[in-house]
Amino acid sequence: MAEEEVSNKHVILKNYVSGFPKESDMEVKTTALKLKLPDGGDYSGAILVKNLYLSCDPYMRSRMRKLEGHYAEAYTPGSPIVGLGVARVLESNNPKFNKGDLLWGLTRWEEYSVIADPETRFKIHNTDVPLSYYTGILGMPGMTAYAGFFEICSPKKGERVFISAASGAVGQLVGQFAKAFGCYVVGSAGTKEKVDLLKNKFGFDEAFNYKEEQDLNAALKRYFPDGIDIYFENVGGKMLDAVLLNMRVHGRIAVCGLISQYNLEQHEGIHNLFCLITKRIKMEGFLVFDYYHLYPKFLDMVLPQIKEGKIAYVEDIAEGLENAPSALIGLFSGRNVGKQVVVVARE
Amino acid sequence: MAEEEVSNKHVILKNYVSGFPKESDMEVKTTALKLKLPDGGDYSGAILVKNLYLSCDPYMRSRMRKLEGHYAEAYTPGSPIVGLGVARVLESNNPKFNKGDLLWGLTRWEEYSVIADPETRFKIHNTDVPLSYYTGILGMPGMTAYAGFFEICSPKKGERVFISAASGAVGQLVGQFAKAFGCYVVGSAGTKEKVDLLKNKFGFDEAFNYKEEQDLNAALKRYFPDGIDIYFENVGGKMLDAVLLNMRVHGRIAVCGLISQYNLEQHEGIHNLFCLITKRIKMEGFLVFDYYHLYPKFLDMVLPQIKEGKIAYVEDIAEGLENAPSALIGLFSGRNVGKQVVVVARE
């Protein structure tokens, strides 16, 4: 297929976004691509991949605006969205990668991508699980849940754990890791369907719909009459203020995300930080890429749990690159149920 | 002097306080006291002390209102203020204390106090330093600076340290500990006189008057062009928001106090907590009484530094119990220069 020419669909960010992103902030364009890597020069270590599964993640919102001093670069308007995904190597100029290899890591939202610097991608060795899992439970969200819970929160058996956005890609795993570890686990989510999933599928002790609560402080007191030891923070805003009032002495807060704030021009103010002192709370933000050295250890824990059916995992699958913009923006209204994945191609 | 009767002046909290405390929230009353401990019963382990030096500390503001779930109990309106101080034992029903012993720890704002449960007070063994130092550098504020800086911030040589309310009882010590440890140290304070003290007496590398800065973010960028590794937080509010924007990756914030907020009915909102994630910051509140087991180790470090003149320490001395209310409320307008002490008696 050396000179085979194919059409290559891309999802392009048209302009920087303010407020809630809309489907019309992105457009799908088609170009022609020769399925052949140029030799040498800029392409000396490059690979050509076919993208199979793309991951929709909340952090992507932050790359849709101009950024200053952020850990991730802003997207380039007029260029494809960049995100995590699962891909198959079609051609390689890089001795570390071979045709046919399966990878997960950064790619672009298009059918075929040339990746000039593939070194930070992970090779997929275990293929007896759905490949899409490498966008979630076996990829960045899985590692995020693992590092955030075990490394940041230093849990002890019997501790009381609260997780917001608990049915999301990360939250559902934190809750299950915490239950398996011997903690009491409560999650919040934004629909009845998600609350049912938390209780009936993911085995949380309790769950509630934060949209139905007039008073988050009272809701937390109902589920945590003795207070919260560990809060896995995915949302920020009013929930964080209510949680601070309900933390126990020497509690820990892992700050993983603040999805309720990502589309606001100015973030809501947090008023209850005095609780950090009175209850001697540790609150720590983290980014998963500081913990990727633990990935093999994580796989050793989680792969058997998946194969033995001890861990439940729910994906929300959008079919086709055309539906990727809608899938991505659905994250911010909480439309997805479980991990939001886009299927570009199944093999 | 078994049945000697003396007059005993007390500083009484009249009522719970809202907003800034005023002198008129307190009153000085005199009663008569027999200088004799009753035997047995409630007094079986009690001691009678003469109070020498009283400590004015920012945390005391929080005890002037009704509290729920706080680490300290509210004061009782109609009763004397409770606080830390240095006292001499006049009589003892407790085998661990003898007449003439010098102590520091909780006492009441009055000339003479009966202490029913003296066990948590520290005996003073080193008397070749001013006794008032046990309200500050050798007491709770000194231990607070030590524990907050070394235990919470885990400093490394060469790191960039910022301290707010830096000329206060705790801040001046944190800065000097940090300098001696090999850090770059900048402090903020609210008058030219305090800024001069920081630079000329306490040896800070730089200091600035936050009241003269239109833009705290710009001020911090001026002194920390490469960002802040460690923030020792004494004030909260707008300063915290500006610091968050200027923290370095893997920075640490020790939350010791939030004095700018203590007189507000609702605390100001903090808007920049997303920096906790992007910069992987650990922010931890602490209370000194979790660290008192380190007190002997702390004395071993700090006593030689004091005796060799390697550490500077500034006190603001108010003479007489009548002046205690004014000294206490002066803390909240920043009137004191250095550690605010009230002398009740010199021996």
- The CATH architecture classification of the largest domain in chain A is Alpha-Beta Complex
Name the helicity range of chain A: 10-25%
Silhouette of chain A: globular
- Class of secondary structure makeup of chain A: alpha/beta
Subunit organisation of the chains? homodimer
CATH class of the largest domain in chain A: Alpha Beta
What is the helix tally of chain A?
8
The SSE order of chain A reads EEEEEEEHEHEHEHEHEHEHEHE
Organism (chains A, B): Coffea arabica (Arabian coffee)
InterPro entries (chains A, B): ADH-like_C, ADH_N_2, ER, GroES-like_sf, MDR_fam, NAD(P)-bd_dom_sf
Protein name (chains A, B): 2-alkenal reductase (NADP(+)-dependent)-like
Pfam family, one (chains A, B): ADH_N_2
What is the strand and helix layout of this fold?
The structure is a homodimer of 347-residue chains.
Chain A: E1 5-13, E2 26-34, E3 47-55, E4 82-92, E5 102-108, E6 112-115, E7 122-123, H1 140-152, E8 160-163, H2 171-181, E9 184-189, H3 192-201, E10 206-209, H4 216-223, E11 228-233, H5 237-246, E12 247-255, H6 274-278, E13 282-285, H7 295-307, E14 315-319, H8 324-330, E15 339-343
Helix pairs in contact in A: 1-2, 4-5
